Amino acid sequence: MTVKNSDFKIDVTSEIGTLRTLLIHSPDSGLGKVVPSKAQDWLFEDIVHLDTMRRNEYDYYVKLLLYFLDPDKIKGKLQQVESDYEREFFKPDNTNFHASNNVIEIQTLLADILQQPDIRKKLVASVCAIESCNYRLQQQLIDTDPVELAKIFISGSLNDDEMIFAPIPNLIFSRDLGIAINNHMLLNKPAKKARFRETLLMRYIFFNHPLFAAYQNNILEIPETAQHFLRPGEDNQEKTTLEGGDVMMVSPQHLLIGCSERTSISGANEAIKLLFDNDVVKKVTIVKIPHKRDYMHIDTVFTQVKRNTWVLLRSLAVAEAPLEEQEPMSWFADKKSKDKTEIVQFRKDKKPKVFNCLEDLLSSISEKDLQSEDKTRFIYSGNNIFPFDSREQWTDSCNLLALKEGVVLGYDRNDKTVEAFKQSGFEVIKVNELLQKFESGELDPKTITDTLILMPSAELSRARGGFHCMSMPLLRDKVI
């Protein structure tokens, strides 16, 4: 079953315009095979309980997305969907799968392109090369049914039992794989080997699936720097890397790129040249944050809620007060501290502009780029109370997905951040309660405003990513 949508478009001009189409990947069996000895190599902080993550957490995300983006798939069927013990509605290889054209499952797209014999042979050969498979296994995979082969590529297992290569558990964080910038797609260059296979799969999908046929010339791939193969060592900091969690489309002509643990200065530099050469945007702002596992990407530090409202970690947001020069320690302080946030804005053929702190940058985006007439407001992680600010940032209090302006998804465990939202005038509602109100008609996704939707998160939060990470928006309405 090939995903077909005659109305399909790629067009993202903001972080908050009403979401119409996105790519996701539901937790697959590979997540349930992450072992403690390899968890950190596979970029997981912990091992998760797969059935709980699916049934009690991620499934709510899919149901909610459908009510907002494709209500005909779910409206009137909620009780039936929730009573199905086998969860057939959520399984891409099942005949009862929701098969939405707006909430698009990556596994379905992969199975679609594997129907083509030439693509199947090429992709099998590519995967087997990076996973060091033997020739007989390669032949066996070529002869495997495309739907089953898609599951194998993602889970790393034959028949759900025999592991033939590592799982790719980070595929649930679909944003890292590519970012829609206006009507272009910028594909990533991952920093860690654990993400090489998922990046390969997404490249094949974007260049070979009929859904993206009209956008072939708008798919941008970041090149390596010249003679990159001469760099000493594999972990050299000059590696060209970029991940989608470090890229934000904040207004039609303004893109943010974070330089972080996962995105290098070289990666940002190559992306800017590519974007300017193709006239995709007019300005790009680099936000360099500390290279710490605490932060990982810029979308773990801040995300946008409304035209004039952002949620962020205050300890990284404000300008540091200068040390008094007469103090002895001021003479020995590191003037270019690696733990300091640095912000530089680049415009084509114009002089770069420096911002003192994140709050100044975000205020500029709200008030100048998006023409907000209201003063920019900040909602702080943990309500800016120590130690809850850093505790809740670790569990993605700042990593929110806007379904439309002012309506965002976040984890239910971040209590102090929830308090901060309430103090800022937002309604707060648990997802299961909201779904029932949508089903009964008491509330309507089209009219709901200024709401933080609380999502269950005991297992999902162990993976270190929120719903901003777990989404690849392809189409949003313009912010008027």
Structural class: alpha/beta
Helix content: 25-40%
Radius of gyration: 22 Å
Q: CATH superfamily assignment?
A: L-arginine/glycine Amidinotransferase, Chain A
CATH architecture, by name, is 5-stranded Propeller
Global geometry: globular
CATH class: Alpha Beta
Supply the number of structural domains: 1
Count of separate DSSP helical elements: 12
What fraction of the residues are assigned to beta strands by DSSP?
15-25%
Query: Number of DSSP strands?
Result: 20
Low-pLDDT regions: none
CATH topology (level 3) name:
L-arginine/glycine Amidinotransferase, Chain A
- Give a quick account of the main beta sheet: strands, pairing sense, barrel closure: 5 strands, mixed
User: In order across it, which strands form the biggest sheet?
Assistant: 8-9-10-13-14
If you average the pLDDT, what whole number results? 93
Spatial separation of the terminal alpha carbons: 37 Å
